[in-house]
Design goal:
The complex is a heterodimer of chains A (265) and B (464). Chain A is built from twelve helices and seven strands. Chain A has helices at 6-10, 45-48, 51-57, 81-93, 106-115, 133-142, 144-151, 160-163, 170-179, 185-192, 219-228, 250-261, and strands at residues 20-23, 34-37, 62-65, 100-104, 122-126, 206-210, 234-235. In chain A, strand 6, helix 11 (219-228) and strand 7 form a beta-alpha-beta unit. In chain B, helix 1 runs parallel beside helix 8, helix 8 (388-407) packs across helix 9 (409-420) and helix 8 packs parallel to helix 10 (445-463). The chains are: A alpha/beta (265), B alpha/beta (464).
Chain lengths: 265, 464
């Protein structure tokens, strides 16, 4: 654990206006709030589609934050992973009770960093894009036209076939991909090159969920990520990368909430 | 959550009184900033916690409703947010660089609610006695605040004292003070500049509080004299358009030698603030970092407007005037003594903290009793940054130490003998600070946190 933090002291992350979408249960059952963190290109809207209401329906106060430069949040130039993690910690600390952090895609990479700065009740990494060269190789093979420009600071474009299973009608899928924005060039590069995250504070349980048919995150990466936290991934075959927007969105969120109800272990 | 099991567990006795055994539970004294973070970190490490708080709310001195609170209406932080907040619970982005004291209180209240700490706090209960018991455990005697009701004694596995050190006013024994006909108040009783309106005011003390009150007197009183013992360095709140402490840390991270840093910062202050002698202030008789930092952008401005007349130390009080050590006399209506506070641990025998006759506790890292492995003090530091981050890591170290003791007593014993018991008192300051009670607990945040880092790593190493 690193307690000398000159970055945080001498060069704090600049503040920004943040979009947080929420759905809260009608009756407070004392369940912990869940904060969803979208991946690169996505905004809080991706969770507002189905997951927020569903989680609230099951008694969990549910919130989704848009990272800076995404969705309805403000932007600062040259946003880094550290700035994104700051956004997540700020959103979590603003909730009335200790929150569960759920990161999707590259949002999971951000959540790993946020866990080192905020003692979450639990962490969930959904279809985690934790970066590194193998992920880059896979993306380059499957979608060279969308991946290559990102190397030069352009926008990383994910195709609808990477993000969704064939069960999602084309028009709907096109609607979603049309809403995608972009992460900063710096953060995109940090997908490839970044330091390993500092250990999570407060020793929270961490769950990894994903799909073996995800065309962004290979199954081996899911296994590797889960093993880091001493477990195995929960798998939902047949789903695309965007678990929260795919046709069978209900299954992963139910599994996550079941896991939380059992105390997350 | 732990619940009281008083009704069924009075199996122990001490001097004919029943003692209720609380098992492995840890006792925290005080629910101010240090107590709250102690509860949170002990809970995070799996301990049951009983915290006793004499007041009816959290926040300690930062809660202006508390009768011992030293805050005054206009008090703002003097360390910027990154140095003030708990490292795992940041203050909101939309708060200013230097929040107001009421924001600090709401921050502490939100912290208590966010981590659900209130169920572990017994409000309106003061600690009367903390005595060692068999097996390195502690008997803690409490009663309702104000002395009502019966005393009760509970036995705990460990005690973390977080009773604060800025609540018992220190008023020097000036000659002739009793005969002085004007009003003398300690800064702890000063709340609002309306008290000074139209009066001739003498503010005593060059600390941050003294400077703040002198600035308020300059704006509201008819005259203001500001008496200090020596010349100080006055750091502005902003340097180069950034909070000054952030600039200082940008320099610190370069790991330059102390002398170079002193030269650099003195150079910057000279450029930003200028020659203090020109304002009639005494020039500092020491290098920067050798006294507790004073952060005030307005003092010199008001000296320049003639609102504040800097004067030297007080020699004696007369019936209607105060004599200063340059031979002059001033005639104030009100004297505000911003002369600081004394640490007090009435519920503990002085030997427990190895206190000197002056009352200065001698603890490892200002936190760990060398004699009692299950007794620690949280928050007994004065720092060149905010204190909350330091107490956070102190209490993490305390929790990890107590965990290790429980899990591997023998290796814990070796660790204790090898580090805590052996290490002599060290100043955790970069520079050689002035040897006054003001600087008993002075630390530099980087040096001190490095030492804590070493201890936390050491504990993890023993554990592995």
């Amino acid at each position: 654990m690193k307690i000398i933090r000159f970055d945080d002291w001498a060069d704090p992350v600049p503040p920004v206006r943040r979009e947080v979408l929420s759905a809260t249960p009608e009756l407070d059952e004392g369940k912990p709030p869940v904060l969803f963190v979208p991946g690169f290109g996505h905004g809080a809207w991706a969770f507002a589609e189905f997951w927020l209401e569903h989680a609230a329906g099951r008694g969990f106060p549910a919130h989704a934050v848009s990272l800076r430069g995404h969705g309805g949040s403000g932007d600062t130039p040259g946003a880094s992973l550290r700035a994104y993690a700051h956004d997540v910690v700020q959103a979590a600390a603003s909730l009335p009770r200790q929150a569960v952090l759920v990161g999707h895609g590259a949002g999971a990479l951000v959540v790993e960093r946020a866990l080192a700065r905020y003692p979450a009740r639990a962490g969930v990494l959904a279809a985690p894009v934790l970066g590194g060269w193998p992920t880059f190789g896979a993306a380059l093979r499957r979608n060279p036209g969308g991946t290559l420009p990102a190397v030069f600071g352009g926008r990383l474009r994910l195709s609808r076939r990477q993000l969704f299973s064939r069960e999602v009608p084309d028009a709907v899928a096109r609607g979603y991909t049309g809403r995608l924005g972009r992460a900063s060039a710096r953060a995109q590069w940090q997908l490839l090159l970044h330091r390993a995250p500092e250990p999570a504070v407060g020793d929270p349980p961490v769950l990894v969920v994903g799909s073996p048919d995800d065309r962004v995150v290979p199954a081996s990466a899911l296994t590797r990520a889960a093993r880091r936290y001493g477990g195995a991934p929960l798998l939902f075959p047949g789903m695309g990368h965007d678990l929260m927007l795919d046709a069978r969105w209900r299954e992963p969120i139910d599994a996550i909430l079941d896991w939380l109800e059992k105390g997350g272990s | 959550m732990t619940t009281s099991t008083d009704h069924d567990s009075a199996t122990l006795w001490r001097d004919g009184r029943p003692v209720y055994d609380r098992g492995e539970t840890v006792c925290v004294v005080g629910a101010g900033p240090s107590g709250l973070v102690a509860i949170k970190n002990l809970r995070e490490h799996g301990f049951g916690v009983d915290c006793y708080e004499r007041e009816t709310g959290v926040g300690g001195g930062w809660n202006w409703r508390h009768d011992r609170s030293p805050v005054y209406g206009s008090a703002h932080l003097i360390s910027s947010k990154p140095f003030t907040q708990y490292p795992d619970f940041p203050m909101p982005d939309d708060w200013p660089d230097y929040p107001h004291h009421s924001q600090v209180l709401s921050y502490l209240e939100r912290y208590a609610d966010h981590f659900d700490l209130r169920p572990h706090i017994w409000f309106g209960t003061e600690v009367v006695k903390v005595e060692p018991a068999d097996g390195l455990r502690w008997d803690v005697t409490t009663r309702s605040t104000g002395g009502y009701g019966a005393e009760r004694t509970h036995r705990y596995a460990a005690v973390v004292v977080a009773n604060g050190h800025n609540w018992s006013p220190n008023l020097p024994a000036y000659e002739g003070l009793d005969d002085f006909k004007g009003r003398v108040v300690h800064s702890s009783a000063y709340k609002d500049p309306a008290e000074l309106r139209g009066k001739r005011v003498l503010v005593v003390g060059g600390g941050n509080t003294g400077c703040d009150i002198a600035v308020e007197a300059a704006q509201h009183a008819s005259r203001c004299w500001h008496s200090t013992r020596r010349g100080y360095w006055y750091a502005p709140k902003y340097l180069l358009g950034r909070p000054a402490d952030q600039v200082n840390d940008a320099i610190l991270r370069l790991r330059l030698p102390l002398r170079t840093r002193q030269w650099l910062l003195q150079r910057m202050l000279r450029l930003a603030v200028g020659d203090l002698g020109r304002f009639g202030l005494r020039r500092p008789d020491h290098k920067v970092f050798e006294t507790h930092p004073i952060v005030n952008s307005q003092l010199i401005y008001h000296v320049g407007h003639g609102g504040i007349a800097p004067v030297p130390d007080i020699v004696r009080f007369r019936q209607y005037s105060v004599e200063l050590n340059d031979g002059t006399e001033v005639e104030p209506d009100v004297v505000v003594a911003a002369t600081g506070y004394r640490p007090r641990f009435e519920f503990l025998a002085p030997e427990a903290l190895a206190a000197t006759t002056e009352g200065r506790p001698r603890l490892h890292l200002h936190a760990f009793s060398r004699r009692h492995p299950t007794l620690a003090v949280a928050g007994l530091v004065e720092s060149d940054s905010g204190i909350l981050p330091l107490v956070h890591w102190q209490t993490v170290a305390i929790a990890r130490w107590l965990r290790l003791r429980e899990a591997a007593p023998q290796r814990a014993g070796e660790f204790w003998a090898g580090t805590v018991a052996k290490e002599t008192d060290r100043p955790w300051t970069g520079a050689k600070v002035k040897d006054t009670p003001r600087h008993w607990f002075e630390v530099s945040h980087v040096d001190y946190l490095r030492a804590l880092q070493k201890m936390i790593d050491g504990l993890a190493g023993v554990r592995a």
